[in-house]
Structures are given as C-alpha cells and as structure tokens.
TrEMBL record:
Keywords, alphabetical: 4Fe-4S, DNA replication, DNA-binding, Iron, Iron-sulfur, Metal-binding, Primosome
Essential cofactor(s): [4Fe-4S] cluster
Family: Belongs to the eukaryotic-type primase large subunit family.
Biological classification of the source: Eukaryota, Fungi, Dikarya, Ascomycota, Pezizomycotina
Coiled coil region boundaries: none
Organism whose genome encodes this protein: Trichocladium antarcticum
UniProt-annotated binding residues for [4Fe-4S] cluster: C306, C389, C406, C447
Cofactor note: Binds 1 [4Fe-4S] cluster.
GO CC annotation, single: alpha DNA polymerase:primase complex
InterPro entries: DNA_primase_C (IPR058560), DNA_primase_lsu_euk (IPR016558), DNA_primase_lsu_euk/arc (IPR007238)
Domain DNA primase large subunit C-terminal span(s) in chain numbering: 300-483
Protein name: DNA primase large subunit
One BP annotation, GO: DNA replication, synthesis of primer
UniProt function note: DNA primase is the polymerase that synthesizes small RNA primers for the Okazaki fragments made during discontinuous DNA replication.
Length: 501
C-alpha cells in the first residue's frame, strides 16, 4: 500500500525476491466508505506515500495516547469526550455522511489506513496488543456515541451480528415484561417499549446483561433494549480486533523483508506514550533554574520516588545498570541538563572506574539518549523522550540488582514504606493511603498522594492565590512533571522562576 516513489530504492526493487511475489498480488483500488464508523475488517490496498504512512500513523497515535492519558487521569466519559473533541477535529476528523463534507473520503481513508498501520506496529507483543485493543475500543466508543443515530443504526445493520429485530406486534405482546427491564411502571410503559429499538440475541451472548437483569429472556432469546446494544457492539468490536491482531502478529515475520517500514513501525510502538506527558529537553526546562551536574544533589529534593531511588542507588554503588541509566539520563535531559553537563554528572558519579572505561562503556549511551549519535529513527526528535509513568510502570520491570522502574509498583509494601521513610515521609495517614493505593494498583495515585503531602503548604497557597491553574495542578503522570511542579511550587515568588507549566 506504499507508493514506491523513492529513486534510491529503484535498484533494490528490481531484484525481486521470489518470496515477495507470493504476497504481491494486490488489487490496488480505492475502498469505498459508506459509513463513518468501521470495524476495520478489510485491509486497505490503494497506494499511499511513505510520508502519509508515517504521518497518519503518528496522528492516530496522538489520539490513542491522549485517550489513554484520560483514563489514566480517571476522567469521566463526558470529560474525556470534551477533552478529545478538539484533538480529534485536528488530527483525525471523521464527519457524518449527512455533513456532505468535501473531505469525507479523505478523512475515512486516513482513519482506515492509520488503524491498519498501528495494527502492524502494535501486534508484536501481548502487552502492546492489549493496550492497542483497549484504546482503539475507547476511540470506537467515543465515535459510536457521537454518531448520528440513523447512520449508526444503518452501520450496525451491516455488521451481521446475528441480532433479530423485534416486531411491533411482539413488542406489544411482551410490553409488561419488556417494560420492567427498562424501569418503567404501568401507564407509560407501553409507549416506551414501542419507542425503544429492541433486538433478540442468544441469551449466552449477554451474560452480563442477564446478571444485571437488564434484559428479558424467553425461549433462549434475550430481548435487548437499544440503550444496551452499545455494549454488545463494543464487545464484538473488541473480540474481532483481538483476533485480527493475533493473525497480524503471525504475519509479522514477512514484514522483515521490508527495511523501509520496520524502522517506522518500531519507532511508533516505542513512542506509545501520552504526548502531553512527553518531554523534550528544552520543553521542560525551567527558566531561572540552575541545571548543572554540580547542582543535581540539591535538585533531588524535587524528585519523585522513582528518581530518588535511582539517585540514592547511584550514590551508594557509584554505578547503575543499563535501564536505570537510561531512565535517569532521560529524566535529567527532561529537567534541562544539557548533554555536556549530563556527561560530567555520569563521569563524576561513576567514580570507581577509569576515564578509559567510562569513555568506552558509558559515554556513547548517554550521547545516544540525547540524540547526539546513533542512526536509528529515535534520533528524529533529538534522541529519546523521557519515560512517562505509564512506560515506567508497564515496561521492563526491574530484575535483581536493578534500580529502575516505579517503587510504588515494583517494591514490596515493606520496602516501599522503608524507602518513603528514608525520604522523610513518616505521616501515618499518608503511608496508610499509599498502602491502599498500591493494593488497588493505583500506583500513580500513591505518587500524587505523596506529592500533595510534601507540597501541601505550597499547594494551598498556589490554589488560594490562583498562581497555578487547574490544568497545572492536574494529576501527575510523568516524573518530569513531578519535578517541574515541585520546583515551581517550592520556588514560588522567586523573581527569576517563571510559573509556566
Ligand atoms: Fe515515578 Fe511515576 Fe512512579 Fe511517581 S508514579 S514514582 S513519577 S514512575
């Protein structure tokens, strides 16, 4: 589906591998998009350029990452819809057929292609498949709810979901039983039953609705009211996508043959982090703050627990293992330490080894993280982005002797309490709250709880004086945001520190 319009590839393409030919019988044609919504059952086949391939995928990824960030911040469905609307309009618009928008086909084509490109990027591991399915279902739900009701009903009819419509005659006959499932008393019930769009399905397909008594069951069929049909459509969407991703995962080895796509796909899957939670060295720097190797020890008072633990381990052992170095280096880059200062920091911290060993074994990795060396696609944005909480919490759990990860997740409760006490958190209510958050697996909530405790005086002042906006005080989902907010709060009122978050 990529238009092969790169001269530099021309020579290579002339040598046709016989294995490629067996998959190379596509019928290049434009897909028609009669509906706004899609279950993405047919892969696209028409030509697009490599630039479109990448840009469309990045745009969809922004949307998915933002949706994930919304659920991470416990936003309600209404808040999520309001938050997502301008982003969807900008990056992945999808207008109703009735709008007669001139770009309708182009919008739907982009939606179709970007979904399939990300399927390729996120099919490789079970963890990525699960995350992709979860956020794609969220996106589908958002669009399903916002869809024009007539267009939505027409779309659902195309899905062959094995639903039988319930005739008006049957509704009339079963009105008392049907009314009780939608919560209407005598009097009004007949009209409501008649107005509702009912369908009949095998009762085994809706165990959750039966359990919550939201359907009437008769002769093996459950009578589902229109308002509950959304969950059936969503279940169907999720189930089909899960199966499709598994098939994609099995087909992935064939893609190894295309060395133009793999770097893009790898880059996409590695950067599946919330864009609002990603930091670049310059974007997160704080004006007026002294970000030097010499000052790092002092700055640790603003660190979240993950970074405090890395720093303490580094000071204790004069060494950190690979992932710990990477997590910490990117954090330092995010707070505004430049490459030279970062190299000075690591060199002076690894004080038990010679210059020669440092230069041979460690210098390159630091430069690579900053995008100063290395030829892969991560260089595009000036190296890697600092890791978000989401990434730290879900990827590369630390093994023995490793200090990276998130202590709220990766430490036992006892070790976590010891670490918190060592960093000065002794308040029993806070420790108890952290304990409960950890048990409920709300690790970032535990981190935010500690942040609020440590900064309670400053937060009160910031709120009372309106110094920081509600957005600047939202739940923290990134270690660099933790640092920045802590620094700004503790330095509130100092002339040279700007309160922009
Ligand atoms: Fe670090 Fe995030 Fe864990 Fe807090 S929740 S300790 S910032 S990874």
């Amino acid at each position: 589906m990529i238009r092969q319009d790169f001269h530099r590839d021309a020579k290579r393409r002339n040598v046709v591998d016989h294995r490629k030919t067996q998959f190379a019988a596509p019928s290049y044609q434009d897909t028609q998009y009669p509906h706004r919504l899609s279950f993405y059952s047919t892969p696209p086949t028409a030509d697009i350029t490599l630039e479109q391939f990448e840009q469309w995928a990045i745009d969809r990824l922004r949307i998915l990452a933002e949706l994930e960030a919304c659920s991470f911040r416990n936003k309600t469905p209404a808040e999520t819809a309001a938050h997502m609307k301008p982003l969807l309009d900008k990056h992945l618009p999808l207008d109703a057929s009735s709008s007669n928008h001139s770009q309708l086909h182009a919008q739907r084509q982009k939606d179709h292609y970007s979904h399939f490109i990300l399927r390729l990027a996120f099919a490789s591991t079970e963890d990525l498949r699960r995350r992709f399915t979860r956020v794609e279902t969220q996106l589908f739900r958002l669009r399903f709810q916002a869809d024009d009701s007539r267009e939505r009903a027409a779309f659902v009819r195309t899905l062959n979901l094995n639903w039988d419509p319930v005739s008006d005659e049957e509704k009339r006959r079963l009105a008392p039983q049907l009314a009780s499932t939608i919560g209407f008393g005598h009097g009004k019930r007949a009209q409501h039953v008649m107005d509702e769009d009912w369908c009949k399905v095998d009762w085994m397909r809706v165990p959750d609705l039966i359990e919550s008594r939201k359907v009437f069951v008769r002769m093996g069929k459950a009578y589902v009211p229109g308002r509950e049909q959304q969950s059936m459509v969503l279940n169907e969407y999720t189930g089909r996508l899960e199966r499709a991703l598994e098939l994609t995962a099995r087909a992935l080895p064939r893609l190894d043959e295309d060395d133009r796509l793999n770097p893009i796909l790898n880059h996409l899957s590695k950067n599946f982090i919330a864009p609002d939670a990603s930091y670049t060295g310059s974007g997160a720097a704080i004006e007026g703050a002294e970000m030097t190797a010499r000052n790092v020890d002092k700055l640790t008072q603003h660190y979240p627990l993950c970074m405090s633990h890395l720093h303490r381990t580094l000071r204790r052992d004069a060494h950190l293992k690979h992932y710990g170095r990477l997590q910490y280096t990117l954090f330092l880059k995010g707070i505004g330490l430049n490459l030279e200062e970062c190299l000075v920091f690591w060199r002076s911290s690894f004080n038990k080894i010679t210059d020669d060993t440092f230069n041979k074994e460690y210098r390159y990795n630091v430069r690579h993280a900053y995008g100063d060396v290395g030829g892969d696609s991560n260089r595009r944005g000036g190296g890697y982005s600092p890791f978000s909480c989401q990434k730290i919490l879900t990827e590369h759990a630390p093994g023995p002797g490793e200090a990276h990860g998130c202590p709220y997740r990766h430490f036992s409760m006892d070790n976590l309490s010891t670490l918190l006490r060592a960093t000065g958190i002794n308040d029993r209510a806070v420790l108890q709250g952290v304990h409960e958050d950890k048990e409920k697996q709300k690790f970032h909530m535990a981190c935010n709880r500690v942040f609020e405790h440590v900064h309670k005086t400053e937060l009160r002042r910031a709120r009372d004086d309106g110094i920081m906006t509600a957005a600047q005080l939202e739940t923290i989902v990134h270690p660099n945001e933790y640092f920045k907010r802590s620094y700004l709060l503790k330095n509130m009122g100092k002339a040279d520190v700007k309160m922009e978050g």
